[in-house]
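TA notes. Do not distribute before section.
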Amino acid sequence: MGIPFIDLKTQYAAVKNGIGERINAVLDHGQYVMGPEVKELEGLLANFIGTKHCVAVSSGTDALLISLMALDLKPTDEVIVPDFSFFGTAEVVALTGARCRFVDVDPRTFNLDPAKLECLINKNTKAIMPVSLYGQCADYTAINKIANKHGVPVIEDGAQSFGATQNGKKSLALTEVGCTSFFPSKPLGAYGDGGALFTDDDNLANLYRQILSHGQDGRYHHVRLGLNGRMDTLQAAILIEKMSIFEGEVDKRQVVAKRYSDNLHQSIVTPTIEEGNLSVFAQYTIQVDDREAVIAKLKEKDIPTAVHYPEPLSSQPALKEQQQEPQPITAKLAERVMSLPMHPYLTEADQDKVIAGINSLF
């Protein structure tokens, strides 16, 4: 049997009984949309993150989209996003009709480089959307300082960083708004799509709740355009149960990551975790030369890999109207990054196989 890149089967065995009980409870009461488990989950997650509000939604992408829809963006407006990220980061900006302004990333952390941010801010800048990539928070101390100077809101794309911390404070509580994803492969994953927004702002939370339900402020009374962004009750029930093992899983991810970093060949560029940061290692991503050859040779050894991400956002055909050149650091990373198996249930034997397999190539 090969090494699982993500091992949801073993995780399920750890929560099987509780998951079954919670799913059966939903089946018994029959409130499949906006059932009581959704509100219960929102309270649980808000308490965990340390914000006043958690608004559960249908996906991480919808969380980002809702946060931008609340800004009532115009075609001349701009949102600053890193050039190195999953497509959804830029896609949601384009869906609002606004323009992406791409900024390069720090070559060590892969996150938005604050040193390259301020020069991009202008009268059309309506938001800055850094990504806490691979599970590590961006430098929100520096980013927030620049944003506050110019009166621009910061929206954290924390799709990969639920549970991460920066100087003791949780990801998703570091900016005016934080958005996350509960896609099954995420550190906290549902058994389908799901996401959430986090904020301390009462007005924003109310606005998000309107938008996620077709812009309603009351039944069949629509005060703005919205979308169908509700989280279904079954996903909420599953997430409640999985929270019972989540912190232990984060600890296990630290052990796997340290073992990789301590034992991989010195010519391999391993992740840099900044002082004060705790990464949840949604991905363990290294940099190598001649990546495609390395991937092919590892495949021969039954070692799975993935590339997050092989193309700058500014180069994506769907964003060609943005008409911007790829950022140089991003372009280099897109050719060199490669992710290794990473999950809390990765055995030492499988870790050793991954490490030995890679080291044999250098």
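Switch to the second chain here.
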Amino acid sequence: MERDKPVMPLTQLKKRKYKVLIQHALRMFEEGAFPSVTELALEAEVSRATAYRYFPTQSALISTVVDEILKPIIAWEPEQTDAEDRVDELLKFAYPQMFKHEGALRAALLLSLQQWAENRSQEMNAKPGVVVNEKLIRGHRKQILSLVTEPLKDRLSAELREKVIHSLSLVYGSEVFMVFKDIWQLDNDEVQSITQWMAKAILNQAKADTAAEAENRVNKKG
């Protein structure tokens, strides 16, 4: 008599279902779809209850997918000690990852725009005590840019370093797809090249500002 196969632990079953859902979601996003949780359940051939157990809302779905695809970037550690080299190292590592999952990142941008419009409307018409809908919030960008600019702590004022981080946040992120790809029709290599050039320009300007501030202090003393 053939022995029964061992029953897979529930935790393993959950992990497998989660992986299946993530894989289907990624494929749908890369095909240009913007699936709801129900649509994902149908595509992955799981029950709606199962899908909603993992992703209570579309925002939760997109946020989870983005977290999954950005894991390599979030776990990234710089090898360089100089800030300029660290920024260059980050962009060279991160952009190929983002290009690979451009569809999901664009979905996150679309959701953010939709939520802004919905929240704006609710704020304009809300009654006292009414809470607006949840927002898609991701904070890894602040953490990574703080890490790569850490060597600047001793070279720039806190205010100027913060300005550098704010400026770099427009260079390091999927928002550039809409400008460089959609408007200017640049390819991936061109996007990466120009973002690296912009980052260098930001850092060079910070150096120039620091030098100018130092010169002003000397002139005032004189």
